[in-house]
Specification:
The complex is a heterodimer of chains A (179) and B (450). Chain A folds into 2 domains: 88 residues, NADH-quinone oxidoreductase subunit E (Arc Repressor Mutant, subunit A, Orthogonal Bundle), CATH 1.10.10; 85 residues, Glutaredoxin, CATH 3.40.30. In chain A, 44% of the residues lie in helices and 10% in strands. With 179 residues, chain A is an alpha+beta fold. Chain A starts with 6 loop residues before the first helix and ends with a helix. With 450 residues, chain B is α/β, with parallel strands linked by helices. Chain B is globular. Chain B has 17 helices and 8 strands. Classes of the chains: A alpha+beta (179), B alpha/beta (450). At the A-B interface, α2, α4 and α5 of A face α7, β3, β5, β8 and α14 of B.
Chain lengths: 179, 450
């Protein structure tokens, strides 16, 4: 079925459009909005964004494949980005990554069999003073030890309202809520 | 004598709910804007010039001078694009400003826009930084409701909008022209310069691209006056003014973001702020300002007997005792970068450090220029060979050759930013690579003291 943004999200797009001199400038924001709704960037989403912004699907696809935040495959209900870059590696990121792989039963780049978690490695998340760290959906967890992981993963499993796409979108509905 | 720790940029960091407009105004917020509109655009620009404010994003270009390049055509739009795409490994200062004191950022954007007669400010924030984006958007909404921007600025006929734009996740978008392409909805591939953004920038219009901390400093400059701000620095005489945020991470006791005058030394950053090397170990190396800046060692001594040498004042001192300024660090053969140091103790294998860093650049090269696209991945593969113990002696020469063939041969500075730290490590720690021929190197955290 063809992809359509919900009225609520369409309203965000309408609000943003006049702020930019071109429609094309909305490519990144609109992709974030669509991903919040669809969970990942499907070919239907690409077609929708291209049509909405009067671009070719090749233009949009080119953007999708360039950036790391746009998921081209279905991801878990929660997405973990564990930092592997130098400050974090110096403070134990390797141990955290291995502990995550063991606890989740999947490798970096994979999704758990129950679809609850996808584990990615991140290239520096600007929290170098609090390493080792990871981002789970939109939240940072810093100064990690392998022992701290169980509670974090359990809380994420229990939080059934959260789906990564919704919690993570940097411009979506949740981000725009007051507070 | 302990190092000075002024609380100017970080004044509100410990205030509860500092990110709300109520808390910010209670602490004297938006008073600089009131003063600024009284001063008028030309006077603000003069103060920023007198402040010797060097860009806080890494290149260290004088902000006041950059502002003077903006090519204004009456009736045509100009933009400010704020670079908040903080992504350089080791760098984590702008995030604290956005999360803890977003109104300081917004006030800085408004004053800068007013000074440059710009009516739209685009704030390009890393998409990963959800909290920072949320806080900035809330700050813009609150400031608009209070009449600090919108159809008027403090009742004056000056239309201003600030648009927070979330990136898609790519280190390269911290490069100014790549940022502009991303803002325009394109792949974040850097553009050839010239034309510089101040002439042809976002959407074909003249654009000033400034780092977020640079602009968040502007309210203080208006408040204190440019010259007084500049004199807060220990390097005022080198036209490197004011206070700035420093970061220290890695093997130190108290990693974090700290505020200090421009020109403190790496030793002060590591010892006084960072609390010294973890576990009382010996310092092996320090990356002074983000992963692209070549490493320094304590045991290296400044050799500048010539009085005309920029480092003559520190002749005979350790590299760690040279003040951290844009020009002093360049004279040392490294760069000041973002002033966020990564500290490594004597258990750390520099082969493993190089492997970690080169994997980053291999992942983040945008792929546009062959030397960088192929070279970064090649350097990463070679470093991995040394780490695994499968490298040969020839690989060591190849590693240097590849790095040297990236330098200066690419559109943007990412390639140089990968080659420089690689060459820096090879220069100071070549022996570790030689020793790694045919012998695996312990991973970081698993090695013995060397």
């Amino acid at each position: 079925m063809a992809f359509e943004l919900t009225t609520e999200r369409l309203a965000i797009l309408e609000e943003l459009l006049p702020k930019y001199p071109t429609k094309r400038a909305l490519t990144l924001p609109l992709l974030h909005l669509c991903q919040e709704q669809a969970g990942h960037i499907t070919s239907d989403v690409v077609t929708y964004v291209a049509k909405k912004l009067e671009l070719s699907t090749a233009d949009v696809q080119g953007v999708v494949t360039f950036y790391t935040l746009y998921q081209q495959k279905k991801v878990g209900r929660n997405v973990i980005w564990v930092c592997r870059t130098l400050s974090c590696e110096l403070t134990g990121a390797r141990g955290i990554t291995h502990a995550l792989e063991k606890k989740l039963g999947c490798h970096v780049g994979e999704t758990t069999a129950d679809g609850e978690f996808t584990l990615f490695q991140a290239e520096c998340l600007a929290a170098c003073g609090q390493g080792p760290m990871m981002q789970l959906n939109d939240e940072y967890f810093e100064n990690l030890t392998p022992e701290k992981l169980d509670a974090i993963l359990d809380a994420a499993r229990r939080n059934k309202d959260a789906s990564c796409a919704v919690t993570f979108s940097p411009i979506g509905l949740r981000t725009r809520k007051q507070g | 004598m302990p190092v000075e720790n002024p609380r100017i940029l970080t004044k509100n960091y410990d205030t509860p709910n500092a990110w709300t407009i109520e808390a910010y105004e209670r602490a004297g917020g938006y008073q600089s804007l009131r003063k600024a509109v009284e001063l008028g655009p030309e006077k603000i620009r003069e103060e920023v010039k007198a402040a010797n404010l060097r860009g806080r994003g890494g290149a260290g270009f004088a902000a006041g001078v950059k502002w003077s390049f903006l090519k204004v055509t009456p009736g045509k739009p100009n933009y400010i694009a704020v670079n908040a795409d903080e992504g350089e490994p080791g760098t984590f200062k702008d995030r604290t400003l956005m999360e803890k004191d977003p109104h300081r950022c917004v006030e800085g954007f408004i004053i800068s826009a007013y000074a440059l007669d710009v009516h739209t400010v685009f704030v390009f924030v890393r998409g990963e930084l959800v909290l920072a984006i949320k806080r900035l958007e809330q700050a813009v909404r609150e400031a608009r409701a209070k009449g600090y921007l919108g159809d008027t600025v403090l009742g004056r006929p000056f239309k201003l909008d600030i648009v927070v734009h979330a990136g898609g996740g790519a280190y390269i978008c911290g490069e100014e022209t790549s940022l502009l392409n991303a803002l325009e909805g394109l792949r974040g591939e850097p553009r050839l310069k010239p034309p510089f953004p101040a002439v042809i920038g976002a959407f074909g219009a003249p654009t000033i691209v400034n780092n977020l901390e640079t602009l968040a400093t502007v309210p203080t400059i208006v408040d204190l006056g440019g010259d007084a701000f500049s004199r807060l620095s220990r390097l005022h005489h080198l036209r490197d003014g004011g206070v700035r945020l420093y970061g220290v991470s890695g093997h130190v006791n108290r990693p974090g973001v700290y505020e200090a005058p421009v020109g403190i030394t790496l030793r002060e950053l590591i010892e006084d702020f960072g609390g010294g090397v973890r576990g009382g170990r010996k310092l092996k190396a320090v990356i002074p300002g983000g992963s692209s800046t070549p490493v320094l060692r304590e045991e290296d001594i400044v050799n500048a007997p010539d009085e005309k040498h920029p480092l003559h004042a520190w002749h005979g001192k350790s590299h760690l005792d040279v003040p951290m300024g844009v020009d002093t660090m360049r004279a040392l053969g490294t760069m000041l970068g973002t002033c966020c140091a990564i500290v490594m103790d004597d258990t750390t294998s520099m082969v493993r450090v190089a492997e970690n860093l080169m994997l980053f650049y291999a992942h983040e090269s945008c792929g546009q220029c062959t030397p960088c696209r192929e070279g970064c991945a090649w350097m990463a593969r070679l470093c991995r060979k040394f780490a695994d113990g499968t490298a040969t002696k020839v690989d060591l020469d190849t590693l240097g050759d590849v790095a040297n063939n990236i330098m200066g041969n690419t559109i943007c500075a990412l390639g140089d930013g990968a080659a420089m730290p690689m060459l820096g490590i090879l220069k100071l720690f070549r022996n570790e690579f030689e020793a790694a021929v045919g012998k695996p190197v312990p991973r970081i955290g698993e090695g013995a003291a060397s």
